[in-house]
Design goal:
It is built from seven helices and five strands, in the order βααββααααββα. The protein is mainly alpha-helical and 191 residues long. The strands form two sheets. It has a three-stranded mixed sheet. The chain has a two-stranded antiparallel ribbon with strand order 4-5. α3 packs antiparallel against α4. The termini are far apart. The N terminus is likely disordered.
């Protein structure tokens, strides 16, 4: 690996890395995760999904991230199918995502866990891998009604929040509160 100094907040958690099971055949792993070495020779992982400006590289060009793409639509639809108990359709959408990730036809992808709970885990994990570092996780956790739990390797000071925590709410911008005297800020986050 390359020796660099990156902020610790740019490092993916061990839990996220474990979703890939060390499988470098998944194109998302290779494009998302890079192994580096710090000044002391210790290995660590970071993402290059949104490369930080490097003034020492004259060829660096900032590229705006994709905000909506077909893979997100497949994931949204798989979740909707799952919620309607249309498990075959949900599995077919997940096969399309996994197939693209491994450069295979969706017909060549086998989803062996066909019971509802197991398929839900697959849908959630594929969503986490596919949309990593794009800011979806908080909204997904909130929508799913899940507890937020970060593994021990996270650099965040907040390790967990219970289901439906008021901290999952976003603050209402002050300018919106100022122009509408009838609007009340979200508890906890606007106070």
């Amino acid at each position: 690996g390359v020796t660099v100094t990156l902020p610790a907040s740019g490092a993916p958690s061990t839990g996220f890395l474990n979703l890939f099971n060390g499988d470098n055949g998944d194109i998302r792993y290779g494009s998302l995760i890079k192994k580096y070495t710090d000044e002391k020779g210790n290995p660590f992982y970071a993402t290059e999904k949104f490369k930080v400006q490097d003034n020492s590289d004259p060829n660096y060009t900032h590229i705006n991230p994709i905000v909506l793409r077909s893979s997100e639509m497949y994931l949204n639809r798989a979740e909707a199918y799952w919620n309607k108990n249309l498990l075959t359709e949900a599995a077919n959408d997940i096969k399309a995502i996994i197939g693209r990730a491994y450069n295979k036809s969706p017909n060549d992808v086998v989803v062996t866990d066909t019971d509802k709970a197991a398929l839900w885990t697959i849908i959630k994990n594929e969503r986490i891998k596919e949309l990593a570092f794009e800011g979806h996780k908080l909204f997904d956790t909130n929508r799913w009604g899940d507890e937020m739990v970060r593994d021990a390797t996270t650099t965040s000071s907040i390790k967990s929040q219970p289901k439906n925590s008021p901290w999952f709410l976003n603050p209402i911008p002050q300018r919106e509160l100022d122009v509408n005297p009838n609007m009340v800020g979200n508890p906890t986050v606007n106070n």
